[in-house]
Amino acid sequence: MTSHAPSLNAIRMFEVAARHLSFVRAAEELHLTHGAVSRQIRLLEDTLGVALFERRNRAVFLTREGAAFQLTCADVMARLASGIRAIQQAGESALVLSCEPTLAMRWLIPRLGAFRERFPRIELHLVAAGGPVDFRRGHVDLALRRNDFQWGTDCHAEPVAREWTAPVCAPALLEAGQLHLERHCQLHTASRPDAWPCWGAASGRATPASRTARYEHFYLSLQAAGAGLGVAIGSVYMVGEELANGRLVAPAGFVEDGSDYYLLSPTPFAGDARRLDVLGWLREELAATRARGVDGDATK
After folding, report:
1. Is the pTM above the cut of 0.70?
2. pLDDT at 219
3. φ, ψ for residue 75 (rounded to 5)?
């Protein structure tokens, strides 16, 4: 704006006075004195070089120029208010959630639509990553992780679900409804190298294998299992769809493997409604998935 342009403060006072056709009521709405409103409008008229009000018998009326200017000011103030609300809502609602890649692909992404319907004011941005998280450098607000590493004491952690795992394979590998582990290739993954030993210890069963194959990511070992290439350890949260449609079976059943999923935050959850909403939703959805996979018929 140039030095001859009217101030936004004066425009605001004019808009209110024009709406009420009263300097007194404008002063009441703006919590100012009648004199302050009158002076600002006089300055505005001097700056514009036109009279905006006619003052007659202690009443004010809009001139033709004032009526036209009122429409412009009302539109400007409405647009400004709308822009401010949009910025405030975006600043309050946008959260960046970092999630382990396989869990993100197989469980979280298919549920994001339901999350948005339930929490329309929370914009959740997803980043697929695992292991330690640098919240500041990574521009991350929350991280969903399994407790297979140590996070710092300055990280706020809330448990969301226990991990349940089971050997999973294509139905074609079953013999009379039974899975003979020793007759099939055991599929391992570099991202969860202890998956088989943990399941064996938790289930109390031996895990013999005629041969083994190793994949870089957990996701790839599950894909290989679905393709009939062997038996992989699957998390109940990541194989639910395949169990439901019959592409995978888990005849040995799921057991808690001793690990847990946590939601991590650089700031406390208490007092932040957005973080608490995400935390509560994750707990509910993971519990429902676990119940369907562990207690339902999908494992049969």
Report:
1. no
2. 87
3. -65, -45
